[in-house]
Amino acid sequence: MRIVKLDQASIETLLAELLKRSPDSYGQYEASVAEIIQNIRTGKDEALFAYTEQFDHVRLDADSIRVTEEEIEEAYEKVDPDLLEVIRKALVNIRAYHEKQKRQSWFTTDERGIMLGQKIIPLRKVGVYVPGGKAVYPSSVLMNVIPAKIAGVDEIIMTTPPGRDGKLNPSTLVAAREAGVDVIYKVGGAQAVAALAYGTQSVPKVDKIVGPGNIFVALAKKAVYGQVGIDSVAGPSEILVLADETANPRYVAADLLSQAEHDEMASAILITTSEELAAKVQEEIDGFLQVLSRREIIEKSLENFGYILLADSMEEAIDAANAIASEHMEIVTANPFEVMTKIRNAGAIFLGENSSEPLGDYFAGPNHVLPTNGTAKFFSPLGVDDFIKKSSVIYYSREALEEIHEDIIQFANCEQLTAHANSIAVRFEKKEEK
Predict the structure, then answer these.
(1) Per-residue pLDDT tens over the stretch 178-203
(2) Which residues contact 118 (CB under 8 A, 6 or more apart)?
(3) Are 178 and 88 in contact (CB under 8 A)?
(4) Residues with a known catalytic role
(5) Residue 278 phi/psi, 5° resolution?
(6) Residue 156's pLDDT is what?
(7) CA-derived radius of gyration, the chain
(8) Nearest alpha carbon to residue 142 among 95, 100, 182
């Protein structure tokens, strides 16, 4: 990892480098994604099966694209019982956390005959995209599905790419059943996103698409946004560790590498006030690289987007952390709770040396679908609110409207919207004539 003195120039350079990881920087793929989406819109199932054969090397049809009960039962037989128990424990924690996010409709009234309120309505149909192929992410199934179930979504449809044998990973299927997915389709990539957005003979159109994926999935979600809702256009994983001289360098190094192993575009950043810690973390990283299985990916990630930033003060370090707005932020300082109060921008904040990032990925309960590429400045983690919509409710009695109708007419006339003014005025025509 590069050890860099933190100043205005270095932080600006770093932010520019990190932005290169954004899906917005991969315009060369947009034409290909647009072509896939258009072909799915027009060719529907025929195009969907053709792309699945082309990209996943599996020949599917209307009968085999949908996962059967027999396949799910087979998955339960193949999954290690100990893993199933862990999935169920994690599910309990995730559900308990997200239950606290649930909102209720509300209404207020007053003696003038006015009722105002907000009606909370769950989405009717949601599509959950789960990466597949070589990757196995049952944790992502839980994180995307459980908030939707708590919100009250009527139907949850999952898509995930099949292996070359036409089957799905057993742990993914088991997690889907445990979380409450209604239907699962063996399809991935941009073609799956297009199918969920526009519908085919086999795959129904949904109201919103959530879930992570590769650059083609991210660009496809971006392209169909507006036709359907999406959670976000997520980029590669990232971690920022904010540490002082009290931090354990071995722990810090291990946590940085936990995200660097995701892919070559992942970002791992340490901001510290201690030169000694910086040097020791670098030593620990070198040692871990000798034994970790994904060494090649980690080395590429650290070469591309790995930084150790040396700050003169904790205030300077905090300012830099807020500017980066990392997906995952660990605070490993003498008083992490005090530092946390000064953090404005982070997807998830982990406090203290025992709260390592994988705790949030799998088990603690908060969602691991988080804003990336600096979007933590204005986006939040996936949650129950992502699976509801709100309608305003307005009722005025005639007496209540009469009291303020001239104010509305004056406002409308100010904006030269005479039909707006007339809509109010006609209700009091007889009174005005008198």
Answers:
(1) 999 999 999 999 999 999 999 999 99
(2) 105, 106, 107, 390, 391, 392, 393
(3) yes
(4) 327-328
(5) -55, -45
(6) 98
(7) 26
(8) 95
